[in-house]
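Try this one yourself first.
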């Protein structure tokens, strides 16, 4: 993937709130990132950091109300998805952006065969006849490693194992050759052996098809093995992003450093006791006016409590092009 390739997806200043009886929850706060053709972007952070809500906001998957995308641009193929009508957005979902959810059992419809569920987007978005869609559906099941693909088209979701159901979900997401595949913790509900198989499958599909992928996870070990670039989220914000090797070797944000210390060493040496990030994630009521990590950060000083830091470049390249971080302390603010 050429480093200077134009982004296939360009997200700018995305803000999403949830209106509740107790007030507004600011779940996504000025998130910006881009994705180039063929690139795999890992999105990491604790539960509640805004990873899934950010990605669901892009393609209108959040219920409204209570959710409201309040600001930003989501540019895909030169169109701002946030300005599309619901019917136009339906055409984008599946055709241009594929989505794989955490739990395939709740994502697949139990009363329809997997064949019908793969064929539906092919007929709707690609204009295929039933016979053409059936042939393509069998090809897709074979592509994701399901044996006896043509025969298994007539099976129902409950007749597949968890790993096989996730493969079916990937086949559905790939059906219309999307430009972008968003995988939302697709291996969380699976055992370790099946997780490894799904990760290898995604690697193979990426090489074969050349699509851009967003992989959402809380597992930094997975990200180390598959991502080109990593975006770290906390409190509904991007606190750091960098090429994967750079992030692991030179983390700048205290939250990123803390996350990395929670990952067991795989060097074979006797592991030290894993560290725990003390405290709780922030309650996202009201627009952020200070660093969201300040209450859990050993390096916090006065400015952290008074001003929400903007992302700044670490390597001299523009923000979003290399390594950047949103942190007063790493910027030397405590010392100068």
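Now uncover the answer:
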């Amino acid at each position: 993937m050429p480093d200077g390739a134009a982004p296939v997806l360009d997200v700018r200043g995305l803000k999403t709130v949830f209106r509740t009886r107790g007030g507004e929850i600011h779940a996504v706060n000025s998130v910006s990132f881009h994705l180039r053709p063929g690139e795999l972007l890992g999105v990491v952070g604790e539960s509640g950091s805004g990873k899934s809500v950010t990605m669901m906001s892009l393609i209108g998957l959040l219920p409204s109300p209570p959710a409201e995308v309040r600001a930003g641009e989501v540019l895909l193929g030169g169109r701002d998805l946030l300005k599309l009508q619901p019917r136009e957005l339906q055409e984008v979902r599946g055709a241009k952006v594929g989505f794989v959810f955490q739990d395939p059992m709740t994502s697949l419809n139990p009363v329809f065969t997997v064949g019908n569920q793969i064929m539906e987007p092919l007929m709707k978005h690609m204009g295929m006849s039933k016979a053409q869609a059936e042939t393509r559906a069998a090809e897709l099941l074979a592509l994701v490693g399901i044996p006896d693909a043509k025969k298994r088209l007539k099976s129902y979701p409950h007749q597949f194992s968890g790993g096989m159901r996730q493969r079916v979900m990937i086949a559905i997401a790939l059906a219309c050759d999307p430009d972008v595949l968003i995988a939302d913790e697709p291996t969380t509900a699976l055992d370790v052996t099946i997780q490894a198989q799904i990760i290898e499958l995604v690697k193979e599909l990426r090489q074969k098809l050349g699509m851009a992928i967003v992989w959402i996870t809380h597992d930094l070990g997975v990200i180390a093995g598959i991502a080109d670039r990593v975006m770290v989220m906390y409190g509904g914000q991007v606190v750091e992003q960098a090429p994967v090797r750079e992030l692991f070797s030179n983390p700048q944000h205290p939250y990123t450093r803390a996350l990395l210390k929670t990952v067991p060493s795989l060097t074979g040496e006797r592991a030290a006791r894993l560290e725990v990030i003390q405290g709780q994630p922030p309650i996202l009521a009201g627009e952020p006016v200070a660093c969201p990590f300040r209450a859990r950060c050993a390096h916090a000083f006065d400015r952290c409590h008074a001003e929400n830091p903007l992302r700044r470049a670490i390597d001299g390249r523009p923000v979003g092009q290399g390594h950047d971080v949103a942190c007063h302390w790493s910027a030397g603010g405590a010392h100068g």
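Discussion: The CA atoms of residues 81 and 252 lie 33 Å apart. The chain is about 30% helix and 20% strand.
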